[in-house]
Protein backbone atom coordinates (compact mmCIF):
# COMPACT_ATOMS: atom_id res chain seq x y z
CA UNK A 1 0.00 0.00 0.00
CA UNK A 2 1.35 3.44 -0.96
CA UNK A 3 0.43 6.79 0.50
CA UNK A 4 0.96 10.48 -0.06
CA UNK A 5 0.97 13.41 2.30
CA UNK A 6 -1.00 16.47 1.19
CA UNK A 7 0.20 19.72 2.74
CA UNK A 8 -2.36 22.15 4.12
CA UNK A 9 -2.39 25.31 6.15
CA UNK A 10 -4.94 26.93 8.40
CA UNK A 11 -4.91 30.72 8.39
CA UNK A 12 -7.01 33.37 10.14
CA UNK A 13 -9.56 34.77 7.70
CA UNK A 14 -8.65 38.35 8.49
CA UNK A 15 -5.16 37.81 7.13
CA UNK A 16 -4.04 40.40 4.56
CA UNK A 17 -3.59 37.74 1.96
CA UNK A 18 -7.07 36.27 2.42
CA UNK A 19 -7.99 36.72 -1.23
CA UNK A 20 -4.83 34.96 -2.37
CA UNK A 21 -5.45 32.13 0.07
CA UNK A 22 -9.02 31.79 -1.13
CA UNK A 23 -7.86 31.39 -4.70
CA UNK A 24 -5.50 28.60 -3.70
CA UNK A 25 -8.01 26.96 -1.42
CA UNK A 26 -9.57 23.60 -1.81
CA UNK A 27 -12.83 24.08 -3.67
CA UNK A 28 -15.12 24.99 -2.02
CA UNK A 29 -12.93 26.84 0.49
CA UNK A 30 -13.27 25.23 3.88
CA UNK A 31 -14.00 27.70 6.61
CA UNK A 32 -14.56 27.12 10.29
CA UNK A 33 -15.10 29.99 12.70
CA UNK A 34 -12.51 32.65 11.95
CA UNK A 35 -10.16 30.30 10.10
CA UNK A 36 -9.73 29.01 6.59
CA UNK A 37 -8.08 25.76 5.54
CA UNK A 38 -6.18 25.93 2.30
CA UNK A 39 -4.73 23.10 0.31
CA UNK A 40 -3.65 22.44 -3.26
CA UNK A 41 -6.23 21.12 -5.65
CA UNK A 42 -6.00 17.36 -6.17
CA UNK A 43 -6.39 15.68 -9.57
CA UNK A 44 -7.67 12.12 -9.58
CA UNK A 45 -6.70 9.60 -12.28
CA UNK A 46 -9.49 8.70 -14.73
CA UNK A 47 -9.45 5.09 -13.66
CA UNK A 48 -10.97 3.05 -10.88
CA UNK A 49 -8.70 2.94 -7.79
CA UNK A 50 -9.77 -0.69 -7.13
CA UNK A 51 -9.78 -2.55 -10.49
CA UNK A 52 -7.95 0.11 -12.59
CA UNK A 53 -10.76 0.06 -15.19
CA UNK A 54 -11.09 3.24 -17.23
CA UNK A 55 -14.89 2.95 -17.04
CA UNK A 56 -15.43 5.51 -14.27
CA UNK A 57 -19.08 6.46 -14.64
CA UNK A 58 -19.48 6.67 -10.84
CA UNK A 59 -17.56 8.28 -8.06
CA UNK A 60 -16.81 7.78 -4.41
CA UNK A 61 -16.92 10.75 -2.03
CA UNK A 62 -13.69 10.48 -0.07
CA UNK A 63 -14.03 12.28 3.25
CA UNK A 64 -11.32 13.43 5.61
CA UNK A 65 -11.83 15.39 8.81
CA UNK A 66 -9.12 17.82 9.88
CA UNK A 67 -9.14 18.91 13.52
CA UNK A 68 -7.34 22.13 14.22
CA UNK A 69 -6.48 23.50 17.64
CA UNK A 70 -6.13 27.29 17.84
CA UNK A 71 -5.50 27.22 21.60
CA UNK A 72 -6.64 25.15 24.57
CA UNK A 73 -10.16 26.58 24.37
CA UNK A 74 -10.67 26.81 20.61
CA UNK A 75 -10.77 23.91 18.22
CA UNK A 76 -11.99 23.91 14.66
CA UNK A 77 -13.15 21.05 12.56
CA UNK A 78 -12.73 21.14 8.78
CA UNK A 79 -14.64 18.46 6.85
CA UNK A 80 -12.85 17.89 3.53
CA UNK A 81 -14.17 15.81 0.66
CA UNK A 82 -13.09 14.84 -2.83
CA UNK A 83 -15.00 13.19 -5.67
CA UNK A 84 -12.89 10.20 -6.68
CA UNK A 85 -13.80 8.59 -10.04
CA UNK A 86 -14.74 4.94 -9.41
CA UNK A 87 -16.30 2.19 -11.51
CA UNK A 88 -19.84 1.07 -10.75
CA UNK A 89 -18.79 -2.61 -10.40
CA UNK A 90 -16.41 -1.78 -7.56
CA UNK A 91 -18.85 0.55 -5.79
CA UNK A 92 -21.31 -2.36 -5.93
CA UNK A 93 -19.00 -4.88 -4.20
CA UNK A 94 -18.05 -2.37 -1.47
CA UNK A 95 -21.73 -1.55 -0.84
CA UNK A 96 -22.72 -5.23 -0.76
CA UNK A 97 -20.01 -5.88 1.85
CA UNK A 98 -21.30 -3.13 4.14
CA UNK A 99 -24.94 -4.16 3.57
CA UNK A 100 -24.08 -7.65 4.84
CA UNK A 101 -22.38 -6.19 7.93
CA UNK A 102 -25.40 -3.99 8.68
CA UNK A 103 -27.89 -6.81 7.97
CA UNK A 104 -26.03 -9.25 10.24
CA UNK A 105 -25.83 -6.63 13.02
CA UNK A 106 -29.59 -6.09 12.81
CA UNK A 107 -30.11 -9.87 12.84
CA UNK A 108 -28.04 -10.11 16.03
CA UNK A 109 -30.19 -7.46 17.80
CA UNK A 110 -33.38 -9.25 16.67
CA UNK A 111 -32.06 -12.64 17.86
CA UNK A 112 -31.11 -11.16 21.25
CA UNK A 113 -34.57 -9.62 21.65
CA UNK A 114 -36.32 -12.86 20.62
CA UNK A 115 -34.07 -14.96 22.86
CA UNK A 116 -34.79 -12.64 25.77
CA UNK A 117 -38.55 -12.65 25.14
CA UNK A 118 -38.82 -16.45 24.84
CA UNK A 119 -36.64 -17.27 27.81
CA UNK A 120 -37.96 -14.66 30.25
CA UNK A 121 -41.07 -16.67 31.04
CA UNK A 122 -39.05 -19.83 31.86
CA UNK A 123 -36.43 -17.92 33.82
CA UNK A 124 -38.86 -16.12 36.14
CA UNK A 125 -38.62 -18.80 38.75
CA UNK A 126 -34.99 -19.79 38.00
CA UNK A 127 -32.05 -18.97 40.27
CA UNK A 128 -29.99 -15.83 39.65
CA UNK A 129 -27.08 -18.01 38.47
CA UNK A 130 -29.25 -19.71 35.89
CA UNK A 131 -30.59 -16.36 34.70
CA UNK A 132 -27.06 -14.97 34.26
CA UNK A 133 -25.96 -18.14 32.48
CA UNK A 134 -28.98 -17.90 30.15
CA UNK A 135 -28.23 -14.25 29.29
CA UNK A 136 -24.60 -15.10 28.46
CA UNK A 137 -25.70 -18.16 26.52
CA UNK A 138 -28.16 -16.20 24.38
CA UNK A 139 -25.60 -13.43 23.78
CA UNK A 140 -22.74 -15.73 22.83
CA UNK A 141 -24.91 -18.16 20.85
CA UNK A 142 -26.59 -15.48 18.74
CA UNK A 143 -23.25 -13.64 18.31
CA UNK A 144 -21.54 -16.81 17.06
CA UNK A 145 -24.42 -17.50 14.66
CA UNK A 146 -24.13 -13.97 13.22
CA UNK A 147 -20.34 -14.19 12.87
CA UNK A 148 -20.81 -17.43 10.98
CA UNK A 149 -23.48 -15.84 8.75
CA UNK A 150 -21.12 -12.95 8.03
CA UNK A 151 -18.35 -15.36 7.09
CA UNK A 152 -20.60 -17.46 4.85
CA UNK A 153 -22.42 -14.60 3.08
CA UNK A 154 -19.40 -12.52 2.09
CA UNK A 155 -17.80 -15.08 -0.24
CA UNK A 156 -21.21 -15.84 -1.78
CA UNK A 157 -22.35 -12.25 -2.30
CA UNK A 158 -19.20 -10.11 -2.45
CA UNK A 159 -16.55 -12.19 -4.24
CA UNK A 160 -18.63 -12.82 -7.44
CA UNK A 161 -19.14 -9.05 -7.75
CA UNK A 162 -15.39 -8.38 -7.90
CA UNK A 163 -13.29 -8.33 -11.06
CA UNK A 164 -10.01 -10.32 -11.29
CA UNK A 165 -8.01 -7.08 -10.96
CA UNK A 166 -9.75 -5.76 -7.82
CA UNK A 167 -7.39 -4.94 -4.95
CA UNK A 168 -10.07 -4.43 -2.28
CA UNK A 169 -13.39 -6.03 -1.38
CA UNK A 170 -15.18 -4.45 1.56
CA UNK A 171 -13.28 -1.20 1.76
CA UNK A 172 -12.69 1.63 -0.68
CA UNK A 173 -9.32 1.45 -2.42
CA UNK A 174 -8.49 5.04 -1.42
CA UNK A 175 -8.77 6.28 2.14
CA UNK A 176 -7.88 9.34 4.18
CA UNK A 177 -8.01 8.90 7.96
CA UNK A 178 -9.16 11.71 10.25
CA UNK A 179 -6.41 14.15 11.14
CA UNK A 180 -5.81 15.03 14.81
CA UNK A 181 -4.65 18.55 15.76
CA UNK A 182 -1.17 19.08 14.34
CA UNK A 183 -1.45 15.94 12.22
CA UNK A 184 -0.96 15.44 8.49
CA UNK A 185 -3.46 14.74 5.71
CA UNK A 186 -2.45 11.36 4.34
CA UNK A 187 -4.14 9.55 1.44
CA UNK A 188 -3.66 5.77 1.20
CA UNK A 189 -3.92 3.72 -1.99
CA UNK A 190 -4.57 -0.03 -2.02
CA UNK A 191 -3.22 -0.29 -5.58
CA UNK A 192 0.42 0.63 -6.19
CA UNK A 193 -0.28 1.13 -9.91
CA UNK A 194 -3.08 3.57 -9.14
CA UNK A 195 -0.85 5.36 -6.62
CA UNK A 196 1.83 5.79 -9.31
CA UNK A 197 -0.79 7.26 -11.69
CA UNK A 198 -1.86 9.65 -8.93
CA UNK A 199 1.75 10.70 -8.21
CA UNK A 200 2.41 11.33 -11.92
CA UNK A 201 -0.77 13.37 -12.32
CA UNK A 202 -0.13 15.51 -9.26
CA UNK A 203 3.63 15.84 -9.60
CA UNK A 204 4.52 14.21 -6.32
ZN1 LIG B 1 -13.37 -0.82 -10.39
ZN1 LIG C 1 -13.10 -3.67 -7.04
Task: Write the topology of this structure.
Layout: E1 2-6, E2 8-12, H1 18-24, E3 30-32, E4 35-39, E5 58-71, E6 74-86, H2 88-123, H3 128-157, E7 174-175, E8 185-189, H4 192-202
Helix pairs in contact: 2-3
The structure holds zinc ion (2 copies).
Describe the protein's architecture and organization.
With 204 residues, the chain is of the alpha+beta class. The chain folds into two domains: 2-89 and 171-202, no CATH class; 92-161. The protein has four helices and eight strands; from the N terminus they run ββαββββααββα. The protein has helices at residues 18-24, 88-123, 128-157, 192-202, and strands spanning 2-6, 8-12, 30-32, 35-39, 58-71, 74-86, 174-175, 185-189. Strands 1-8-7 form a three-stranded antiparallel sheet. The chain has a three-stranded antiparallel sheet with strand order 2-4-3, with helices on one face. A two-stranded antiparallel ribbon has the order 5-6. The protein is flat. The relative contact order is 0.20. The mean pLDDT is 86. The protein binds zinc ion (2 copies). Residues 50-51, 90, 93, 162, 166, 168 line the site of one zinc ion.
